[in-house]
């Protein structure tokens, strides 16, 4: 994709954000659905009655996009930085937490904040602040990675 | 067919956005979260770009009675109380995000990279989602979804039925 083309990080981040916004717009205006990834993933595993298979197709598109990106730029998907046990714990926390809060970076952070929802603004501020504190402790206070 | 294609392409464009922005690199995400160290603030612009376009899309949706390819919008109304579930859930998510540099979208996409750690993370994430459902007292039978700043999703869905 464009990632290997040497765009300055700021331009790449903004362009990538616009693409994410376009994806949100497509799913919303064509299918009437919210592009909240944690809800979509949870719904693939446990679909409701008459809910269709749009979630599985969205996830398939997400993974297919990753495969294409890798063909274009082998470094498109970065290596994991945490060891396996930490990844397992982190995955558990992300799954549990996003379902408890009813959204993640996409559902609350992009969709909810773009609707100026107070719940989403509080959720987004909370997960970003906590993530920042965790990185501070791991990197600086505990002298880890 | 068109409806299926729309869902698939939305996922693919979402993936392109994550890749182009650098959100698929956990080291870059952690550098963005590392405000007190060698801070890389560029990822803030991902939110700026995505929110700007989504805001226009949600305004356009509000003016329509139905989406182009479906009978109705499945978007919860904005609003709702800010409770312990919301704050505790967001804090737990932030803890996992800060430990790994992975949020759900990039995590699922990372499966395409074939690294064992990506599979471990996604399987653990699914387990965490199942665990949350087991410990929740309500919402059985309804498909989970992101509330997008609406009322509690399960409450909204049980009212709809």
Structure report:
The complex is a heterodimer of chains A (145) and B (161). By secondary structure, chain A is mostly helical. In chain A, helix 2 (37-45) crosses helix 3 (54-72) and helix 5 crosses helix 6 (118-141). The model of chain A has no long low-confidence stretch (mean pLDDT 92). Chain A has two domains: 1-78, no CATH class; 80-145, no CATH class. Helix content of chain A is 71%, strand content 0%. Chain A has six helices and no strands. The radius of gyration of chain A is 17 Å and the shape is globular. With 161 residues, chain B is mainly alpha-helical. Chain B folds into two domains: 1-75, no CATH class; 78-139 and 148-161, no CATH class. Helices cover 61% and strands 0% of the residues of chain B. Chain B has helices at 2-21, 26-33, 44-62, 84-100, 104-110, 116-135, 153-160. In chain B, helix 5 crosses helix 6. Chain B is globular. The two termini of chain B are 27 Å apart. The chains are: A mainly alpha (145), B mainly alpha (161). At the A-B interface, helix 1, helix 2, helix 3, helix 4 and helix 5 of A face helix 1, helix 2, helix 3, helix 4 and helix 5 of B.
């Amino acid at each position: 994709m464009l990632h290997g083309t040497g765009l300055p990080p700021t331009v790449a981040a903004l362009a990538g954000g616009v693409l994410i916004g376009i994806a949100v717009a497509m799913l919303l205006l064509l299918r009437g659905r919210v592009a909240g990834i944690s809800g979509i993933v949870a719904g693939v595993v446990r679909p409701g009655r008459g809910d269709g298979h749009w979630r599985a197709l969205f996830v398939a598109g997400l993974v297919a996009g990753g495969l294409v990106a890798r063909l274009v730029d082998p470094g498109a998907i970065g290596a994991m930085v945490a060891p396996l046990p930490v990844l397992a714990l982190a995955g558990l926390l992300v799954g549990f937490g996003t379902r408890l809060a009813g959204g993640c970076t996409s559902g609350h952070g992009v969709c909810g904040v773009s609707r100026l929802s107070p719940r989403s603004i509080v959720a987004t501020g909370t997960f970003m602040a906590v993530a920042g504190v965790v990185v501070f402790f791991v990197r600086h206070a505990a002298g880890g990675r | 067919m068109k409806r299926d294609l729309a869902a698939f392409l939305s996922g693919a464009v979402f993936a392109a956005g994550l890749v182009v922005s650098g959100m698929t690199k956990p080291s870059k995400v952690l550098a963005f979260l590392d405000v007190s160290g060698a801070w890389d603030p560029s990822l803030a612009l991902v939110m700026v770009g995505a929110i700007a376009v989504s805001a226009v899309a949600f305004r356009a949706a509000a003016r329509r009675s139905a989406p182009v390819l479906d009978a109705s919008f499945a978007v919860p109304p904005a609003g709702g109380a800010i409770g312990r579930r919301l704050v505790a859930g967001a804090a737990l998510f932030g803890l996992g995000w800060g430990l790994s540099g992975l949020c759900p979208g990039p995590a699922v996409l990372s499966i395409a990279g074939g690294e064992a750690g990506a599979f471990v993370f996604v399987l653990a994430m699914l387990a965490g989602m199942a665990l949350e459902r087991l410990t929740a007292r309500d919402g059985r039978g309804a498909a989970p979804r992101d509330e997008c700043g609406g009322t509690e999703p399960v409450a909204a869905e049980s009212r709809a039925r």
